[in-house]
Design goal:
The protein is 48% helix and 14% strand. α10 crosses α12. This is Regulatory protein AtoC.
């Protein structure tokens, strides 16, 4: 965790000065106070890894200070210093969340050992927290493709994986941008650290800021307790910002500062925090156009666009279709020649994600071991036949997108949240498309 930051509270000035000087020489970053009131002021303005409190303090005692400390900084590790006849009080302190206690007079080496253990315990808690997330993220994923451009993209991904520089991944919805972000993470020396993803277009501005940077209790209505943000959860690992082009301009300023310094503030907090993460952004928009239109900050674009990975749409790598079908179709089922021909001719506006959904429905609807064309075409979202496929090939991409969105909205009875999920876009993006194409419920 780097140099641990300590706060020591003791009303014995000579001992306090001795401790502070000794621990600073040992490389610790140390603040101190002679009473609990001053200590609380420090705790409200600075973060600490370890606190060392004398149980006997003027006015507010060490036990009460411990309780207040845990309210302000729950993750801090507290060591209690006890005098003669206060062992029972020290045991009470342990029950209240103190890490350990030492009886006075104590050996300074003994105190240093206790501090080292407390630092290790805090690191272990943070590591376990991260590992729980990692276990849920199972990293045995596959990126499938033999298309030359696609293979070159994979090689570039592998070359830049170990770097800390930001990466911008571009590609249409459903092309596999998150898979490439995971590849950047799991093919790097960060593989044992967290991979944390957030969809920048899925939440309103205030909630997005809270999810990203966290908030303190009382920061806004409903903020009933302190909450760690995703940038903290990703510490040491990778932060994946999906739908980056959807991020509000106000939040783009804060993201730029975070990228440049690693520092941030939780919503409603005055204290700076610092983490070390590798940031990967993804967008299905042309960010250069968004910059030109004033929707995306130019300085943030250049800060993110150090390395760019542009994933080709499925229609441009049809030679990968057979490999992908073999990967997605399970249970010993195969596609009939007509079903395969249908997929070969289809335009795939939803790319690999749409192919996966089509095949899932085909497996579900097929009566035998063979998936027929009708099993694919009876899907709830997209109903086409071979003639329709040919028609799709002859229309513009814009017209195809308009008709596809209209079909999806119709199938889900204009439930925009469901439609956005099916299309693989944010609700905000869907509203924009509805307005762009002047779509209306019939």
């Amino acid at each position: 965790m780097g140099a641990a930051r300590l706060i020591i509270v003791d009303d014995e000035k000579d001992l306090l000065e001795l401790l502070v000087n000794r621990l600073k020489r040992k490389g610790y970053d140390v603040d101190f106070a002679e009473n609990a009131e001053d200590a609380i002021s420090l705790l409200q303005n600075q973060f600490y890894d370890i606190a060392i409190y004398d149980i006997r303090l003027p006015k507010m005692d060490g036990i009460t200070l411990l309780k207040e400390t845990k309210k302000i900084q729950p993750e801090i590790q507290v060591l209690m210093l006890t005098g003669h006849g206060t062992i029972e009080t020290a045991i009470e302190a342990m029950k209240l969340g103190a890490f350990d206690y030492l009886a006075k007079p104590y050996n300074l080496t003994e105190l240093e050992i206790a501090i080292t253990k407390a630092v290790e315990n805090k690191t272990l808690i943070e590591k376990n927290d991260s590992m729980r997330k990692i276990i849920k993220q199972h990293n045995s994923f596959q990126i499938i493709g033999k298309n030359p451009h696609f293979k070159a993209l994979l090689e570039l991904t592998e070359r830049v994986a170990n770097s800390d520089v930001p990466v911008l991944i571009e590609g249409e919805s459903g092309t596999g941008k998150e898979l490439f972000a995971k590849a950047l993470h799991y093919w790097s020396n960060r593989a044992e650290e967290p991979f944390v993803a957030i969809n920048s277009g899925a939440l309103p501005e205030q909630l997005l800021e809270s999810e990203l940077f966290g908030h303190v209790k009382g920061a806004f209505t409903g903020a009933n307790q302190d909450k760690k943000g995703l940038v903290e959860a990703a510490n040491g690992g990778t932060l994946f910002l999906d739908e980056l082009g959807e991020m509000p301009l106000v939040l783009q300023v804060k993201l730029l500062r975070f990228l440049e310094t690693g520092e941030f503030r939780r919503v409603g907090d005055v204290r700076e925090r610092k983490v070390h993460v590798r940031t990967v952004g993804a967008t299905n928009r042309h960010l250069e156009k968004e910059v030109a239109n004033g929707n995306f900050r130019e300085d943030l674009y250049y800060r993110l666009n150090v390395v760019r990975l542009t994933i080709p749409p499925l229609r441009e790598r049809k030679e990968d279709l057979t490999l992908l079908i073999h990967h997605f179709v399970k249970n010993g089922k195969t596609l009939s020649p007509e079903a395969m021909a249908t997929l070969q001719k289809y335009h795939f506006p939803g790319n690999v994600r749409e192919l996966h959904h089509l095949l899932e429905r085909g497996v579900l609807l097929s009566k035998g071991d063979t998936i027929e064309a009708d099993d694919l075409l009876l899907a709830n979202v997209q109903k086409v036949n071979l003639k329709d496929v040919t028609t799709y090939q002859l229309c513009t991409l814009e017209q195809l997108e308009k008709e596809h969105i209209e079909k999806v909205l119709s199938e889900v009875e204009w439930n925009k949240t469901k439609a956005a999920n099916v299309l693989g876009v944010s609700v905000r993006n869907l509203y924009r498309k509805i307005e762009q194409y002047q779509l209306k419920e019939k």
